Amino acid sequence: MLLRIRNLIRKELIQLGRDVVLTAFIITLPVVQLILLARSTSPSITGLDVAVVDRDRSSATRKAVEALHNREALDVRGFYPTVEEAGSLLDRGDAVLVVIFPEGFSQGVSFTPAFSGPTTSPSVQIIADGSNDLMADIALGAAREALTDFARGATGASEDDLASLIDLRTSVRFNATFDVKLFTVPAQVGFIVYQVTLTVAAIGLARERELGTLEQLIVMPLTRLELVIGKALPALIIGLVNFLSMLAVAVWGFGVPMRGSVWVLFGLTVIFVVAEIGYGMFISGVAHTQQQAILLVFVLAMVDMAFSGYLVPVKNLPAGLRVIARAVPLRHYLAIMRSVMLRGAGLGDVWGHAAAMLVVGGLVIGFAVQNLSRRLD
Question: If 0-12 CB within 10 Å is exposed, 13-18 middle and 19+ buried, where does residue 252 land?
């Protein structure tokens, strides 16, 4: 019995070794996935963008901004003349905080408490983007610490006096209660649409090849382009139906707000689904069996998760990996989902992500069609 089992094991290993593509993916890509996740996961989130509105234009505000910028968690993006202009960065997801210094701020922090004090504490308004509750909480905490340290250094006050020296007024947009599901559920909707679309597109031709019916399709009066379109359209329909059903569950089942236009989100979803169909068709042309196609989908999904911001913020990735992340449609689609649903963003706010999906999707589809045409001939 042991001899028979050993021979069977040897046969399976030999058969697996003959499939070079499958063996390479099984051995190398899990290691790559671990490296990507380990590199992208750091002990803390750093470099969160901050926009500043300085109405005082004094040396005191410049020092306060420097204190903000010196915090590892924060990165001052720049100065903006109006709250509306700075707030537009929150709407687009280009900043996590807006810090507003009022006129007369310097007068309230230019005294020594041992001798005199101000009649009123200078106020600083902080507006946070709560669509990502974790990043907003970290940014608010770092801003409070930075401004408190600045006030201590500017006034020489003791710890007990700091509360009366500066009045921090915070407000949170898009998710005032820091409800974590408002951040995670839209990402889950996007990832489910991604998985379903990619899987359906990937197994189309692989199933025909495995069942031996691909030759019958080839001899039919269909051009190669017609064959590809006929295989791609079912994946498009299934992906969009899946998106609509998941969106309904997210909004009505989990209470995630839909602050933007459903039609804008639907149109951008069409672009995303088409881009992922391109990846699926390429996998379908490479894989010889449905098992290979599913494995390739799984590996691609794991890699895309590392680059998409689904698990960790893209800003935590090393610089080189952040460049690669720009070519991942899932990264752009998750940003679009959160922006449209939570921030009420319009097409003008997310056009950069939409353009990236169009370019990447066009290149992938062109390459997939060319590869399939060559393999089918």
Answer: exposed
